[in-house]
Specification:
The protein has five helices and seven strands, in the order E-H-H-H-H-E-E-E-E-E-E-H. With 158 residues, the chain is of the alpha+beta class. The strands form two sheets. The protein has a four-stranded antiparallel beta sheet, with no helix packed on it. Strands 5-6-7 form a three-stranded antiparallel beta sheet, sandwiched between helices. A hairpin with a 2-residue loop joins strand 2 and strand 3. Helix 2 runs antiparallel to helix 3. The longest helix is centred in the middle third of the chain and has 19 residues.
Length: 158
């Protein structure tokens, strides 16, 4: 096993990083199943409209179905906009990895993940997803050197 004394790097939470983070951490199915809820709202609203049960509720359900379809279609854009509007956007992050923990530090965040408390590490195409309790953190490989990547790969095998 590779021994690492301590690795430290600094990077900016910019738009490019957030796009990579989203693409590497989400698993969105590419079929019509993701539009099921919106289709149900539109169908129920249309049926209520045809039976003239309650026109206001009917139009509300149809509008809700359309809004739901847009939220599915533009999920990535919506998530990216929320991240870019957050106070952490464009701030500098200092990442420290050693034998005991992963530490993520910035003006807004000070998080230490002990290796013993990490539930799962998943290797992605461009980095690693670290699952700790109910949260996931993304570590981009472009900010890591080869020794630390090998160290994390060894942690995955354990």
């Amino acid at each position: 096993m590779t021994s690492v004394t301590e690795f430290t790097c600094q990077y900016k939470l910019d738009k490019e990083y957030f796009i990579e983070c989203y693409e590497q951490s989400t698993t969105t199915p590419r079929s019509m199943i993701i539009y099921t809820k919106s289709l149900c709202f539109i169908t129920i609203g249309s049926a209520m409209l045809l039976t003239q049960l309650n026109p206001y509720a009917s139009w509300f359900l149809i509008a809700l179905g359309i809004l739901e379809a847009f939220s599915v279609k533009f999920k990535k854009s919506w998530w990216l906009m929320r991240q870019m509007l957050s106070k952490a956007a464009n701030s500098d992050i200092q990442l420290t990895i050693n034998e005991e923990h992963i530490r993520i530090h910035s003006y807004y965040v000070n998080k230490t993940l002990l290796w013993s408390e990490i539930n799962q590490i998943t290797k992605t195409e461009k980095g690693f997803l670290v699952t700790h309790d109910k949260t996931r953190h993304y570590l981009a490989s472009k900010h890591l050197n080869s020794a630390i990547i090998e160290f994390i790969n060894n942690k995955i095998k354990q």
